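Progress note, sequence design subtask.
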């Protein structure tokens, strides 16, 4: 048994977090290999045929959809109870670049439940789902990326949702989910979005979207939205937006709406980051994050290590967050600022007060441009009980101020 460890508020880390077993394909049930059911690597979009195969597997007691070597095109797929997904070596499940292949449905996007496009891979209301293998799930997002930036030239105020594009993976209202070993890349929009789910693991995945020659806009690696007990381990993340993002709702009464909520007991460890805007980001749609631990990570080219986005139109509480044992290079070590994108008080006359407390950054050795980019905003939020311990940060700009945080502890 491992030495007992604890989340930042002293809650023990459950044994579930230490089990990083990845099942073999034989353990996933009866195999439904695409090519054995007439679904070929022929350049055609096979959404209907693959969905019928998923439905057949569910009706026959479950099993695993197997993507063999080759490239298989599809639109939105909806997985059901007891049906898993395995992508073999040399195999690619590739998304269509035509938005008509992604139906409009009730879903979750940017902190709101609304009508929007389904993802490429959809899992809802499932207890026990595994998606694994050495192969690739490719969103094929280049066409929508180009369209997004062209739209921005025409309308600089256009939002993320104005350019019609799907997620790569959307998992909702589910439990005991494992995503392991896969390359998840080139998403049109957010790469992985997990909503209202618990006991979710991402193990040994490569999550990628390009920053050049065409930037892949808003392709967050993993968006965690009202989830608990979540492990991200041994993953490589390089995306043209934030990597691990904690969401949960936005708006002046977001903390009272039942579809919103907290993220709790989130562990990110032993990961490597390529370019991204934020390694761990709270916001920009977030109500309550508690017991977040990120440790033993290496940052190759990130913009911000820890980024606390605080919305003046949303009541937010970020607490018991620890970032430790970090090496590497980033633009900013700690960034805390107001976030006003798509700001809307919706008639509320007062600004909700937010708070960030019990934040610890320790045992880090990093190079960066700015160490502390912290903007106090007393009328909007309170920053208190931060601890900085055993830090060796080589920065061009310090940015430190004794008045930036209430009850700040400095050690070594």
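Output:
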């Amino acid at each position: 048994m491992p030495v007992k460890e604890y989340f930042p508020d002293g809650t023990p880390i459950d044994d579930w977090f230490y089990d990083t077993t990845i099942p073999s394909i034989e353990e996933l049930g009866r195999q439904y290999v695409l090519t054995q059911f007439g679904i070929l690597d022929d350049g055609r979009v096979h959404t209907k045929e693959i969905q019928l195969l998923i439905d057949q597997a569910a009706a026959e007691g479950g099993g695993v959809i197997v993507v063999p070597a080759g490239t298989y095109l599809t639109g939105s797929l909806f997985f059901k109870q007891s049906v898993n997904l395995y992508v073999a070596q040399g195999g690619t499940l590739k998304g269509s670049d035509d938005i008509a292949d992604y139906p409009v449905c009730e879903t979750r996007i940017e902190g709101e439940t609304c009508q929007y496009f389904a993802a490429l891979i959809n899992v809802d209301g499932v207890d026990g789902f595994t998606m694994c293998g050495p192969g690739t799930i490719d969103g094929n997002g280049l066409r929508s990326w180009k369209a997004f930036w062209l739209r921005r030239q025409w309308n600089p105020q256009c939002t993320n949702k104005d350019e019609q594009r799907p997620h790569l993976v959307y998992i909702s209202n589910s439990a005991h989910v494992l995503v392991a070993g896969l390359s998840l890349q080139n998403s049109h929009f957010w790469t992985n979005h997990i909503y209202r789910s618990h006991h979710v693991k991402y193990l040994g995945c490569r999550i990628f979207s390009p920053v050049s020659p065409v930037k892949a806009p808003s392709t967050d690696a993993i968006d965690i939205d009202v989830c608990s007990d979540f492990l991200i381990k041994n993953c490589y993340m390089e995306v043209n937006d934030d990597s691990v993002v904690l969401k949960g709702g936005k708006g002046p009464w977001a903390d009272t709406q039942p579809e919103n909520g907290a993220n709790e007991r989130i562990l990110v460890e032993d990961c490597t980051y390529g370019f991204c805007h934020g390694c761990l980001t709270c916001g920009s749609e977030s109500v309550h994050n508690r017991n977040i631990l990120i440790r033993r990570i290496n940052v190759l080219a990130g913009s911000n290590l820890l980024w606390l986005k605080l919305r003046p139109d949303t009541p937010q509480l970020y607490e018991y967050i620890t970032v430790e044992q970090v090496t590497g290079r980033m633009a900013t070590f700690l960034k805390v600022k107001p976030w006003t994108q798509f700001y809307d008080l919706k008639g509320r006359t007062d600004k909700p007060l937010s708070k960030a407390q019990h934040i610890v950054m320790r045992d880090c050795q990093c190079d960066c441009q700015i160490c502390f980019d912290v903007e106090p905003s007393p009328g909007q939020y309170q920053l208190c009980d931060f601890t900085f311990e055993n830090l060796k940060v080589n920065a061009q700009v310090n940015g430190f101020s004794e008045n930036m945080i209430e009850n700040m502890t400095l050690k070594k």
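The chain has two helices and 28 strands. Work on this subtask will continue into the next period as scheduled.
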